[in-house]
Request: fold
Amino acid sequence: MSFLKEPFFHFALLGAIVFAWFSFANPEPFQGPSPGQGHNEITIDQPLIGAMKAQFRAKLNRNPTALELNGVIDNHVKTEIMVREAKSLGLDDGDSIIRNRLVQKMTFLATSAAQAVVPDDETLKAYLNNNAEQFVSAARISFDQFGLGETIESVDVVSVAASLKNGEQPDVSFLRFLPEAIKDANARQIDATFGKGFFEQLADLPIGTWSGPVRSGFGYHLVRVSELVPPSLPPLSSIRDKVLFGWQQSLAEDLSEAQDASLQEGYVISRPTPEELEAWVTK
Reply:
């Protein structure tokens, strides 16, 4: 992806933008005292009130009343006290739920950065062509079928086929619970009705003539295929949202990998050698 020729640069740039947006759109209670505050001091200042009003307005589409805002402040104070006391007791150490939540927030930065990028049509066309297998429309078929029964030993298949080709209704008819005509259905739909592998057999039949017998999960059939539409790659204009979603998902994965690599550069990581690991496993 040409956009990611310098993934670390793009991650840093987009991550900074999204982090600023995230901090503005999702203000949360302080996780500890502000500079100059002691452990037992909680200050409800104007910026925090503004953040509370913004959250309230985002949820209910209106500003809070003074009484409602006072209730929000009460809840904030209770939450802040509980968080500080829990952290002072070390309750956050080794908590997998808290750790996973923090990882989710970090991952959110890369995902949001990707969603904020709107590529041009040329970029999306290139992604569509390079990942055609994700977007190819399934083959579809239309056909008529005549049920011969669970077995064909007692049926004059040639005579039945001749009658059908002449536009006549054969004297015998079985498997009446199955639809006689199917219009514009894909393999999943066909196999769900007639049994696995039925569509694959129909795809090899000639168009416009009665053929068979063809085996289904219920027995044997004579089939006349009227139309077979092969798999095709739709134009970008008809699946643009789907292609955009796929492109952004791919970008998010690339940014996440860049994020991991960039962050790991700031750490000294000591880990066992392959030999040590093998020895520990066998102990």
Remarks:
- Residues 138-229 form a domain with the Chitinase A; domain 3 fold (CATH 3.10.50.40).
- The radius of gyration is 32 Å.
- DSSP finds eleven helices and four strands in the chain.
